[in-house]
Amino acid sequence: MQALVLLLWTGALLAHSSCQDSAGSPQEDAPAPDTTGVPMEEEDPFFKVPVNKLAAAISNFGYDLYRVRSGLSPAANVLLSPLSVATALSALSLGAEQRTESTIHRALYYDLISNPDIHGTYKELLAAVTAPEKNFKSASRIIFERKLRIKSSFVTPLEKSYGTRPRILTGNPRLDLQEVNNWVQAQMKGKIARSTQEIPSGVSILLLGVAHFKGQWVTKFDSRKTSLQDFHLDEERTVRVPMMSDPKAILRYGLDSDLNCKIAQLPLTGSMSIIFFLPLKVTQNLTIIEESLTSEFIHDIDRELKTIQAVLTIPKLKLSYEGEVTKSLQEMKLQSLFDSPDFSKITGKPIKLTQVEHRSGFEWNEDGAGTTPSPGLQPARLTFPLDYHLNQPFIFVLRDTDTGALLFIGKILDPRGI
Question: What pairs with residue 362 in β-bridges?
């Protein structure tokens, strides 16, 4: 990555062409580039820490999943917590024989990690990102077909590393749905609505990943400055949405000339941050930005952005998602899990992945820890005020600063909801 330089004395120029060259750009038929992460792991001490290296690997899986999911619904909002899906897949790999295990591990980028205890490290990562001060909850579960006899040699390491036990369906759709809903409510502390969709018949293996986040800014917004303002859905259509404002916001900023977007990072409590990607022109086609997203690129951004003062407006956001990511995973070279996998470490009966469900909730409002910026944040002096208005389609990334883990990613074409 090239160094940041001032551009017209208003901000920073963030060029990432060298990062793209090393990371590779995902192709339509191969969304998981084999080379992602290799140079950075050799050069950057951050990625030499086992938990951080694992976080980078599954985050790259997350960016792949997001790209495929976004491509399947180009005209709709996308909200994903890829970590919960990755956790379910990683846990399932405990029951896979070598061929099937390798398929899952390649999708999760484990083949680029020389870590003999990936599952033990995963336990450490989950503990780090779900600590109470993070305001982030994530849980995953493996659900099996009724009357399946499961080997204790699978259940024991599953419980040890992932803190969960598998669930065997009763065959009664109403009771099974009630049990799953009760589990989700318990894991998410009631933050995610109960599902009304019945458990489908014919399930062999169902993976469920759930997550919720309610952010708290390091510096809170003044609710008296929140007002209805225009959000440009595209060049012709606008809607009125509640927008939070701060005329003297302290944020970290860069202008990426290759991606034609303005990047801003806002700190959250608990060593978390949100990075926003805002195109210079109103557009719903965010593909060029999406293709650049990797753990290494985001890590570079985190190092290179410059602290400035800006006039900031940002929509209040409360989004939820419930649905399948089955098709997305099938397009990520995981089709064999649905066709003819080998899960003989789980049971002697042939079983296969049937469905992968994801439920998530995400919100931010004016809430914050303090009314003034942290004393250590000294903004660069600008010759005139910089504006950063999230009043048109944008992408955001919620990242755990300590580990670099991708916790949530969203494409917001309409902040009124999914």
Answer: 213, 319
238 vs 384: which has the higher pLDDT: 238
The secondary structure of the chain in percent helix, strand, coil, rounded to multiples of 5, reads: 35, 30, 35
Q: Buried b / exposed e across 116-126, counting CB within 10 Å, b at 16+?
A: eebbebbeebb
- Element of type H or E holding 312: strand 306-315
What was the pLDDT predicted at 198? Answer: 87
Distance, in Å, from the CA atom of 167 to the CA atom of 141, rounded to the nearest integer, reads 8
Two tokens, residue 257 = 């000339």
Residue 219: CB partners within 8 Å, gap ≥ 6?
A: 246, 249, 250, 267, 368, 369, 370, 371, 372, 373, 374
Prediction pTM value: 0.89
| Structural tokens at position 222 | 């003044």
Gap between the Cα atoms of 85 and 170, Å rounded: 24
What long-range pairs does 38-44 form, CB within 8 A, spacing at least 24?
38/112, 39/296, 40/295, 40/296, 40/299, 41/112, 44/296, 44/299
pLDDT tens digits for range 300-342: 999 999 999 999 999 999 999 999 999 999 999 999 999 999 9
Q: pLDDT band for 99, please (50, 70, 90 cuts).
A: very high
| pLDDT of res. 382 | 63
Per-residue pLDDT reduced to its tens digit, 12-30: 334 333 333 333 334 334 4
pLDDT at 396 over 50: yes
Burial pattern 377-416, b for ≥16 Cβ within 10 A else e, equals: bebeebeeebebbbbbbbbbbbbbebbbbbbbbbbbbbbb
Instruction: Identify the structural domains of the chain with CATH numbers, from first to last.
Output: 5-70+216-316+367-412 (2.30.39.10), 72-214+319-362 (3.30.497.10)
What would the DSSP string read from start to end of 318-374? EEEEEEE-HHHHIIIIITHHHHS---TTT-SS---EEEEEEEEEEEE-S-EEESS--
pLDDT for 9 beyond 90: no
* SS3 sequence of 260-289: CEEEEEEEECCCEEEEEEEECCCCCCCHHH
